[in-house]
Amino acid sequence: xxxxxxxxxxxxxxxxxxxxxxxxxxxxxxxxxxxxxxxxxxxxxxxxxxxxxxxxxxxxxxxxxxxxxxxxxxxxxxxxxxxxxxxxxxx
Length: 91
Fold this sequence. Notes:
single chain, mainly alpha, 3-stranded antiparallel β-sheet, 3 helices, 3 strands, about 35% helix
């Protein structure tokens, strides 16, 4: 079974089913479609201070749009996980 993360209606920030999970690829970790590059690898590189150009040099099969899609997906995912305080006076 392949899970197309972009198919999740709540996670539509990853364009064109950019991110997939397949038990036969990288142990089922989320990867960029058509590659074996995991989201974890891209996000860890960014966390260590790499620029998008650095990541593209390390993984020449990736595009800038794919890296930005991973960033957008991570941001949307974090937004879902973070509690949002209620505004006073709003139901």
